Amino acid sequence: MLTYRDGQVNNTSCEVPTESSELSDYNLFSSHSALQDALAREGAAADHEALTALGARLGSAAMFALGDAANRNPPQLRAFDRFGARRDEVEFHPAWHELLRRLIAEGLHTGPWAQPRPGAHVARAAGYMLWAEIENGTQCPATMSYGAVPALAPASAEFAPWLKLLMSREYDACFAPASGKRGVLIGMGMTERQGGSDVRTNTTRAMPVAARGPGREYRLTGHKWFLSAPMCDAFLVLAQADGGLSCFLVPRFLPDGSVNALQLQRLKDKVGNRSNASSEVEFQGAHGLLVAEEGRGIPTILTMGVYTRLDNAVATAGLMRQCVAQAIHHARHRRAFGRRLAEQPLMLNVLADLALECEAAVMLAMRLARAFDGLDDENATLLRRLLTPVAKYWICKRAPTVCAEAMEVLGGNGYVEEGPIARRFRESPLNSIWEGSGNIMCLDVLRALTREPATRAVLGELLAAARGSDPRYDRFLGALLAQLDGAADAEQRARDLTQRIALAVQAALYLVHGPSASCEAFLASRIAVAPPAAFGTLPGDESDFAALTARILAA
Ligand SMILES: Cc1cc2nc3c(=O)[nH]c(=O)nc-3n(C[C@H](O)[C@H](O)[C@H](O)COP(=O)(O)OP(=O)(O)OC[C@H]3O[C@@H](n4cnc5c(N)ncnc54)[C@H](O)[C@@H]3O)c2cc1C
After folding, report:
1. For ligand 1, atom 33, which residue shows the shortest CA distance?
2. Which ligand 1 atom is at minimum distance from the Cα of 188?
3. Which of 17, 85, 161, 394 has its CA 20 to 30 A from that of 23?
């Protein structure tokens, strides 16, 4: 504000109250009723205390600052040293290393494998969802390492040392052979220039050095167009062997301690996910060990992919929650037209609708995580097979719209990089694109339904638990079951079917477990009618809306 005093023009703009404040230094978990309820419902109530402690650690201002610093200072490729010799290293800001150190120390990468117990995957999913509120780039190597364990576990004894190091809670950033390290991370290389969805078109070749077969050494020649987190200690890589497309463990170092022939060409200049490096790489006769039989490359890497897809759903629910929590917090403090934004009826509707979408995402992701705790259970296996692409598709599809609307709640400040939402908005489309883009997930839903007919019965059982509680749901369910009958030839309608399965599961969870205000709002706005294109169109009254927002950020 400019004032004129004593013949001087004074700038007193800093005296104008901004009427909002930072949302940091708060407990991410204990302020999040929707996640607390989901944790208990899905079989990990015993972890409530541990997650409360984690929520306090992650919600500190220091963690928010680390997340920002890692993303403001993106990694740099050092392809050569100053004499022109190849280095093929990526240098990261110290904040990246500190974040990864903490993530691994919390066991959020491979904890459920290192200490298996009932509810382990659900508890980890809750912790991972909280981590996603702080920083997403570090989740890339963590998620890939989580998925690498089940892909390597059934393989030959050659991989046992790798599995042991994957379970470690120590982050070792040294660029050195894995045999001398305190812990390792594993990435994946599937996508080539000519195709990421259709990996059958991969052209990278693998030739056996002597004998062929699992655990044997091959030489790989070719490229990968995307290879994220290239400072991982090894990668699961698809390449064509004589027996067909096969999966190889390709380490950064050879057994003799020399650097393996992975040449990093470039780092991608990405829209978001900027703390993390995503490289283009060439394999110049790189050393690799065959993981399963030749020709079994796709099923082997998909074992990893199922877990990375779970994490896409889980992390996206966390990303949404942070954006919606920031929006609610801002609206509770900022005034316009004589009242706080959160007291304005239309804004309250927007916030409640965002909170509802967020809670439904949390519920679906956590229900999916529970299916990963029943690894040997036949029904859980079928449900996991179906719900993984359903949840990844629907939650990730909703995220950019949710994040954009949350940004708008902050007004002009929302669009400024200094604020908390800009980076998260740029991150928000990514989980839908990688690890199987939207259409690929929907086609996978059709495959799950048609290849194993019992899948339909397992889904039907889950949805039948809520039948008879509300006529709107019953009508929706009847139409969905009829639609499932024609699933085999429904390719062009696969998005519609997938969306309806997601909505039906979310509605069933609300009907069986409540809370009633959220359940009613969900049925009225997403089951009785099509889900809103823009948030803020809920029927209902203001007291219900306040209850909905409190589920995502305690008042
Ligand atoms: C930041 C980032 C990091 C990545 N990191 C890695 C990594 O570490 N390792 C790795 O292997 N890959 C990585 N990827 C690649 C990613 O997994 C692929 O980009 C993705 O799988 C899509 O493949 P594509 O880009 O070749 O697109 P395409 O396969 O060409 O697909 C383009 C579009 O067509 C659609 N489509 C394809 N087939 C069909 C069909 N039959 N019917 C209808 N629609 C179809 C897809 O859904 C998509 O929307 C990364 C990508 C990004 C953006």
Report:
1. 437
2. 9
3. 394
Calculate the average pLDDT of the chain.
Answer: 95
Residue 525 Cβ inside 6 Å of ligand 1? The answer reads: no
Residue 2: pLDDT band by 50, 70, 90 thresholds?
very low
The span from the CA of 51 to the CA of 127, in Å, is 7
Q: Is residue 145 predicted with pLDDT exceeding 50?
A: yes
Atom 17, ligand 1: which residue's CA is nearest?
434
**Token pair for 513:** 């477990």
Q: Which two tokens stand for residue 187?
A: 């990435």
Q: Is it the case that residue 69 has pLDDT exceeding 70?
A: yes
Determine whether the shortest distance from the Cβ of 196 to ligand 1 is under 6 A: yes
Continuous segment of H or E residues that includes residue 431:
helix 430-433
pLDDT of residue 4: 45
Supply the residue whose CA is at minimum distance from atom 22 of ligand 1.
Answer: 196
Cβ neighbours, 10 Å, residue 554: 14
CA 295 to chain CA centroid, Å, is: 29
Q: Which atom belonging to ligand 1 lies closest to the Cα atom of 140?
A: 8
What phi and psi values does residue 338 have, to the nearest 5 degrees? 85, 0
Cα 280 to ligand 1 centre (Å): 14
Nearest to 506 by CA among 481, 490, 527, 492: 527
For the beta carbon of residue 492, count every other beta carbon within 10 angstroms.
Answer: 7
CA distances from 325 to 55, 62, 77, 328 (A): 14, 18, 35, 5
Distance, CA 45 to ligand 1 centroid (Å)? 37
Ligand 1 proximity of 403 Cβ (cutoff 6 Å) = no
Q: Which two tokens stand for residue 22?
A: 């930072």
What is the band of 71 on the pLDDT scale with cuts at 50, 70, 90? very high
Q: Which atom of ligand 1 is nearest to the CA of 438?
A: 47
Q: Which residues contact 231 (CB under 8 A, 6 or more apart)?
A: 89, 90, 92, 173, 175, 252, 277
Q: What is the pLDDT of residues 501-528, one digit of tens each?
A: 999 999 999 999 989 999 999 999 999 9
Name the burial class of residue 486, with classes exposed (0-12), middle (13-18) and buried (19+) by CB atoms within 10 angstroms of its CB.
exposed
Q: Which atom of ligand 1 is nearest to the CA of 190?
A: 11
User: Among the atoms of ligand 1, which is closest to the Cα of residue 238?
Assistant: 11
**CA dihedral sign of residues 526, 529, 531, 533:** negative
User: Helix (H, G, I), strand (E, B), or coil: what is residue 167?
Assistant: coil
141 in ligand 1 pocket by Cβ < 6 Å?
no
**pLDDT on residue 266:** 97
d(CA 479, CA 535): 25
Asked if residue 318 lies in contact with residue 128, where contact means CB atoms within 8 angstroms, the answer is yes
49-64 residue pLDDT tens: 999 999 999 999 999 9
For residue 188 and ligand 1, the question of a CB distance below 6 A is answered with yes
